[in-house]
C-alpha cells in the first residue's frame, strides 16, 4: 500500500487524518447554526437551512476554510465559538504511534493543512501535535487551498521536497487527486475521518485505510532496516 523504502517526506493532512473530524463536523453542522440562530432569532433548523448552502457554495476554495472570511460574513467570532466546543478536539486512533514511528524511521513529517492559523493554534494547544512532526504549513500562508494544483508548486518555497519521494495522506479525495496531478508519487486516503460517522467508500484509484494501524507494521519494518554505510 505504501512503498516506505522510496520515501523521504510524508505530508500529512490534519483534520480527518490526524485529528478526529468529528470536532469540525459538529462545529459547522451543529454548534455554529446554534449560535447563528441565537444571534439572528432563528430556530436551529432554520439557521442550518440558511447557513449550510452558504458554506457549501465555498467548498474547495480558501474561503471554505477561512476563519476570517466566515467571521466577517456571519458577524460572529468563529475562533471563539470553536473554543466553546474545544473539548471535542482529539486524535484519531493510532495516530500518536504512527507519528512516533515516522520520527524513528528518519522520514520527514510535515503537516500540510487547509486549517486557518487561528483554529490551528487552538488545535495545537489542545493536542501538542506540533511536537510530534517536523513542520506545519497552512494553505493560508500560500493563499491557495490544497485543491488548487498551483498549491503544490508554491509549497516548494516553504518546504522544499522531492515529489517522487513523497507520500501525501489525506481524507479528502479532491486534495489527493490534486497532489497526484502535481506529481506527488504516493497518495493514501483516510476512509474513516469522523469517529461518529460510517467510513466512506474507497477511491477507485487511490489506496485507502481506515486507521493507521493498517500501515504501522510495514513502517516499523522500514525502521528495522539498517542505513547503508
Automatic annotation (TrEMBL):
Q: What is the lineage of its organism?
A: Bacteria, Pseudomonadati, Pseudomonadota, Gammaproteobacteria, Pseudomonadales
State the superkingdom. Bacteria
Name the EC number(s): 3.1.3.5
**Family matches, as Gene3D superfamilies:** HAD superfamily/HAD-like (3.40.50.1000)
Q: Which NCBIfam families match?
A: HAD-SF-IA-v3, PRK14988.1
One Pfam family cited in the UniProt record for this chain: Hydrolase
Q: Which UniProt keywords apply?
A: Hydrolase, Metal-binding
Any one Gene Ontology molecular-function term assigned to this protein's record: 5'-nucleotidase activity
Record-linked PANTHER family? GMP_IMP NUCLEOTIDASE YRFG, PHOSPHOGLYCOLATE PHOSPHATASE
Return the SUPFAM superfamilies for the record.
Answer: HAD-like
Q: What is this protein called?
A: GMP/IMP nucleotidase
Q: Does the keyword Metal-binding apply?
A: yes
The source organism is: Marinobacter qingdaonensis
Amino acid at each position: 500500500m505504501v512503498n516506505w523504502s522510496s520515501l523521504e517526506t510524508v505530508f500529512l493532512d490534519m483534520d480527518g487524518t490526524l485529528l478526529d473530524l468529528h470536532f469540525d463536523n459538529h462545529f459547522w453542522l451543529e454548534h455554529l447554526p446554534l449560535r447563528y440562530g441565537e444571534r439572528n432569532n432563528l430556530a436551529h433548523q432554520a439557521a442550518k437551512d440558511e447557513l449550510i448552502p452558504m458554506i457549501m457554495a465555498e467548498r474547495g476554495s480558501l474561503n471554505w476554510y477561512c476563519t476570517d472570511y466566515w467571521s466577517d460574513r456571519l458577524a460572529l467570532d468563529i475562533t471563539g465559538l470553536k473554543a466553546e466546543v474545544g473539548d471535542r478536539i482529539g486524535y484519531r486512533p493510532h495516530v500518536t504511534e504512527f507519528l512516533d514511528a515516522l520520527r524513528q524511521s528518519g522520514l520527514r513529517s510535515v503537516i500540510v493543512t487547509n486549517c486557518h492559523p487561528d483554529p490551528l493554534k487552538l488545535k495545537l494547544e489542545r493536542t501538542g501535535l506540533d511536537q510530534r512532526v517536523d513542520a506545519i504549513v497552512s494553505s493560508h500562508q500560500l493563499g491557495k487551498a490544497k485543491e488548487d494544483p498551483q498549491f503544490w508548486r508554491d509549497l516548494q518555497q516553504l518546504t522544499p521536497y522531492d515529489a517522487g519521494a513523497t507520500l501525501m495522506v489525506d481524507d479528502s479525495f479532491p486534495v489527493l487527486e490534486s497532489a497526484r496531478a502535481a506529481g506527488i508519487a504516493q497518495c493514501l486516503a483516510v476512509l474513516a475521518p469522523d469517529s461518529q460517522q460510517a467510513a466512506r467508500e474507497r477511491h477507485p484509484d487511490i489506496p485507502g485505510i481506515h486507521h493507521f494501524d493498517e500501515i504501522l507494521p510495514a513502517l516499523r519494518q522500514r525502521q528495522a532496516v539498517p542505513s547503508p554505510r
